[in-house]
Amino acid sequence: MKRESGRSVRAIALCITLSVGGLFMGFVGTEKVLAVTKSRFEKLELFNKVLFLVESQYYREVDTDKLIQGAIKGMMNTLDPHSAFLNKEVFAKMQEETQGEFGGLGLEVTQKNGHLIVVTPIEDSPAFKAGILPGDRIVEINHESTIGVTLEEAVDKMRGKNGDKITIGVVRENEEGVKNFVLTRQIIKIKPVKYDVVRKNYGFVRLKQFQKRSAEGIINALKDIRKKTEKNGGLKGVILDLRSNPGGLLDEAVDVTSIFLKDGIVVSTEGRDPKNKEIRYVKKSGYKELDVPLVVLINSSSASASEIVSGAIQDMKRGIIMGSQSFGKGSVQTVAKIDDEKGVKLTIAQYMTPKGRKIQAVGIVPDVFVDEVEATWVSENRKESSYIRESDLKNHLTATIETKEEKKRRLVREKEDRKERMEKLKKLKKEKKKDHKNMWMIKYNPSEDYQVLQAVNYIRSFDLFKKMNK
User: Coiled coil located at which positions (predicted)?
Assistant: First the structure.
């Protein structure tokens, strides 16, 4: 190990010498390099002294490997929340997650002001089904406080064997006390894409996570939606739902964006040296949806790859971004493999949108702010119109003469409409009485989602203005 470290230091010293101006720079450059190298060796010597003291004088025998790994973790904790040392278990776990199948609770978490915060529960996971919500603050894991626990330590505590139970205690805004959720770890198979047709002509595509073949899933969904809408006049708009999508693979973010853009930049990254930028461009080949109006839904739990896609769509004026301001995770991480079992996740750059906007700690601000409102609340608080219309007046004229048969059918239809409205109202009132857990598990229907319906309205108005300007 010491020999390898020595070679690394010499390699760094050589690189610094070259960057200063070459091997023939002279004594001034060499002195600077030697000063940096000496300073680093002195600091490493300090670490060696402390390690020796602990190994030789601590009242019990210690595991040196454990001490060194602890020191490395401490070093990484001085950086940003997304940089971390990956031990054997964490490294294996990270590789599993990008494949779309892994064991666990299904929680995306972050740390803010020393608190462990839920970014989003992954759909259909144990955490999602139990009713844990974005913004919940995890204060206990198996009845042990999370105060002073690092993000990586907390994640490690939540991991375990499939089938094992774990108790998560959370504090929720505007609610008193600690809510305890008993979860059972399980293999989580994520189907990243769900889709449906809304109002006969509008495609709704929800992407839950950017994992391998996510773009392929969206393409298949769009093709099927086009077939289903053919009989009703064709596809008139697409709603891409990235709400509570925590991100994932950058390559998939580029592929998803490429479906909706003809060409141009998707995202660029700026590292330590602002002059060295990596630019990722739209893929010009493959399936494209360039003509239909597009609305992208985001919220405060839309992060990372979700922000890359929505930022590119917004900058290129391809569609409307709707919802609430996104999470703001705009840093780039790379996983450096140390050996077959361990690695380091390190923040190396920041993402920028095609127009050079930085996402980190800012997020994507939607073009249209639409609050997430429960459909039950909207339906129950909608005012019934009680105005008198021309058709209510006695002996009113009709545009055409209504036959007795037509009148009969009209009255039957109106009676059925009133009955249907009453039944819906009863159902909504009944659902409102259910507890949160049951409400959380009600099958999602985009046709009853307030934000989705607002997206449809915007697309319809866009279509109307386009016809008016012809």
Answer: 394-439
Any residues with CB less than 8 A from the CB of 72 and at least 6 apart, and which? 85
Q: Is 98's pLDDT higher than 70?
A: no
> Which of 83, 137, 141, 144 has the alpha carbon at shortest distance from 115?
137
The catalytic residue among 179, 208, 236, 329 is 329
Catalytic (active site) residue 304: yes
Task: Name residue, tokens 């950086």.
Answer: 79
> Residue-wise over 414-437: b if at least 16 C-beta within 10 A, else e?
eeeeeeeeeeeeeebeeeeeeeee
Q: Which of 125, 302, 304, 331 is catalytic?
A: 304
What DSSP string describes 372-432? Answer: ---HHHHHHHPPPP----GGGSTT---SSPPPHHHHHHHHHHHHHHHHHHHHHHHHHHHHH
Query: Total domain count for the chain?
Result: 3
Which entry of 136, 255, 315, 449 is annotated as an active-site residue?
315
Question: Which of 37-51, 165-179, 446-460 shows the lowest mean pLDDT across its residues?
Answer: 37-51
User: How many angstroms from the chain centroid is the CA of residue 176?
Assistant: 28
Q: Report the distance separating Cα 76 and Cα 291, nearest Å.
A: 47
pLDDT tens, position by position, 216-253? 999 999 999 999 999 999 999 999 999 989 898 999 99
Q: Is 56 a catalytic residue?
A: no
DSSP 3-state assignment of 340? coil
**189 included as an active-site residue:** no
Residue 53 lies in a domain: yes
Give per-residue pLDDT as tens, 249-273: 999 999 999 999 999 999 999 998 8
Q: Which of 157, 189, 221 is the last residue in one of the domains? A: 189
Domain span including residue 118: 101-189
Q: Which of these three, 165, 189, 213, is where a domain ends? A: 189
277 and 148 in one domain?
no
φ, ψ at 256 (rounded to 5°):
-65, -45
